[in-house]
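Run log // design_07
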């Protein structure tokens, strides 16, 4: 009888649910699904009972040496129930959100609002436009070189002591003189050193400086437009990236939920003994990986929102939320247009190329100025009028004889600097500046060609990538639905469903990234042709005031900019 009990215990131990060893036709029947009984067997040669060993991988107790006739220990059953409850608690833990102290409020923003806000509040654009005002002031100064300066004042002279006449005679003289009116520094028979109306200018500067200053204004205007285009392009690219990151976050949450449902399903089958514990562990580990992917997606959304806020000069403590609807392909430029035609169009439209051409013209005028400098004279002209009087001990009184006085002087002279060597060095420097400006213009043209070709090639590649990603997603979703239905019926292996679900998750993210890259390439190509990003239709009817960090005050010279904000 004792040997029969031992054989029955061994059969129950081998055929326990969750183990990989099946029962043959001649063996004892296995326990029903869901049973968590632990059979005991007697170890030959030993008569004392020991606690059963437990496998950490499977979570199921393995039989240990004990008396064959001993009943199941209630502690082992309690331990298994506790493990099953722990597994359910682990699966019930949802995805924790990152801690935010204090909670970050969200500010919805669409592309229309972002572009207008950047055009009005971005400090980089404001600085570029301020340089236009600086160039205009320099142009005004160049145009008024030949206009006279006005002076008014007075001077008093008192002398006591010896003076020497031109004949060499020394005289002990006490004299005084007073002048007041237009100009100053009038002494004896000399002219007024500071005339009331004075012109002192080089005719070389008066001729060439206004021409060079005008080109400087033109160049700064085009540079301001180019700077605005670059900043607005960055704003559009960051907006599309934020919109894509938000969609990827929602996709990761959907993926996590689907993996969670699968893990719960596999875990229930494993507890019932119809699946291996290893399958449940694998599903739970996969769910935790997807939960970590959700947290990474939340982090990426926060980082992109902070970069977007900094580009818009907004308060970074306000979380920006892209409110432009679902991400979709945007077709701004016909990609069937040849690169040569696009480059030819950009050479006529890009503001940075126009700015470089203006720099070349300015360098040319400065070079011609140095060539003409020895040939054109310097003009000095002065006129003054006022009251002058005085006296001395020789001709009393010391202060009297006041009357009117006027002086008019004209001086014209030519200058050869350092016996001509100084002028020659200025001419050579002007030639070098012309060559440098021309090289910078060619460099800008090459950069425009490279940007156009690269943006068009990227857009074409991403357009093909969108189609491939969509086909991959459709195929992956079809396979996942089939594997999921079979898994719910306890057919097939859980790892097949996990693999299909991972393929679906990757395909979903690939579609969003391909659409984002395509839209960004389209905007880069549009800006590379010389235009700012187009203003779409507003997605928000009445947006709230933006949380600007440091508002820009004062009028900005935005005249001529493609986006008009009513500040002209």
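design_07 sequence
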């Amino acid at each position: 009888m004792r040997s029969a009990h031992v054989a029955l215990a061994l059969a129950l131990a081998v055929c326990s649910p969750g183990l990989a060893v099946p029962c043959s036709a001649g063996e004892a029947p296995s326990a029903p699904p869901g049973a968590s009984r632990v059979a005991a067997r007697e170890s030959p040669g030993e008569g004392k009972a020991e606690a059963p060993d437990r496998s950490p991988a499977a979570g199921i107790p393995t039989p240990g040496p004990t008396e064959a006739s001993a009943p199941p220990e209630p502690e082992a059953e309690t331990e298994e129930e506790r493990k099953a409850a722990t597994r359910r608690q682990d699966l019930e833990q949802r995805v924790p959100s990152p801690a935010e102290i204090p909670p970050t409020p969200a500010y919805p923003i669409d592309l229309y609002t972002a572009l207008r806000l950047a055009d009005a509040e971005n400090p980089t654009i404001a600085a570029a436009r301020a340089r236009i005002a600086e160039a205009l002031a320099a142009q005004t100064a160049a145009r008024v070189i030949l206009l006279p300066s006005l002076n008014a004042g007075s001077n008093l002279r008192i002398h006591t002591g010896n003076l020497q006449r031109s004949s060499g005679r020394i005289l002990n003289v006490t004299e005084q003189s007073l002048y007041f009116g237009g100009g100053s520094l009038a002494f004896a028979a000399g002219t007024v050193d500071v005339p009331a109306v004075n012109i002192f200018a080089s005719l070389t500067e008066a001729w060439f400086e206004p021409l060079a200053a005008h080109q400087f204004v033109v160049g700064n205007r085009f540079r301001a437009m180019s700077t605005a285009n670059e900043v607005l392009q960055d704003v559009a690219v960051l907006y599309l990236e934020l919109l894509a990151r938000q969609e990827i976050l929602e996709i990761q949450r959907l993926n996590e939920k689907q993996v969670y449902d699968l893990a719960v399903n596999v875990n229930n089958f494993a507890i019932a003994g119809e699946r291996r514990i290893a399958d449940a562990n694998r599903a739970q580990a996969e769910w935790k990986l997807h939960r970590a992917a959700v947290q990474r997606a939340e982090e990426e959304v926060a980082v992109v929102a902070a970069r977007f806020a900094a580009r818009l000069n907004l308060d970074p403590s306000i979380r920006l939320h892209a409110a432009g609807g679902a991400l979709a392909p945007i077709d701004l430029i016909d990609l069937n247009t040849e690169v040569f035609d696009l480059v030819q169009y950009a050479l006529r439209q890009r503001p940075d190329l126009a700015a470089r051409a203006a720099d070349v013209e300015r360098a040319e005028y400065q070079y011609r100025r140095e060539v003409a400098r020895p040939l054109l004279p310097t003009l000095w002209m002065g006129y003054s009028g006022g009251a002058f009087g005085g006296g001395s001990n020789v001709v009393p009184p010391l202060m009297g004889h006041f009357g009117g006085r006027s002086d008019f002087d004209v001086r014209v002279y030519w200058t050869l600097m350092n016996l001509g060597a100084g002028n020659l060095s200025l001419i050579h420097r002007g030639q070098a500046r012309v060559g440098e400006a021309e090289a910078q213009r060619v460099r800008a043209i090459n950069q425009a060609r490279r940007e156009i070709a690269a943006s068009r090639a990227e857009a074409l590649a991403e357009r093909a990538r969108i189609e491939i990603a969509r086909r991959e997603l459709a195929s992956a979703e079809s396979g996942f639905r089939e594997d999921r239905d079979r898994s719910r019926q306890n057919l097939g292996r859980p790892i097949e469903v996990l693999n299909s679900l991972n393929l679906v998750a990757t395909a979903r993210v690939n579609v969003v990234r391909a659409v984002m890259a395509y839209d960004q390439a389209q905007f880069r190509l549009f800006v590379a042709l010389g235009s700012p990003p187009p203003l779409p239709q507003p997605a928000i009817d009445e947006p709230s005031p933006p949380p600007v960090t440091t508002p820009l005050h004062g009028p900005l010279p935005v005249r001529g900019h493609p986006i008009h904000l009513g500040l002209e």
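The first strand starts at residue 53 and ends at 54.
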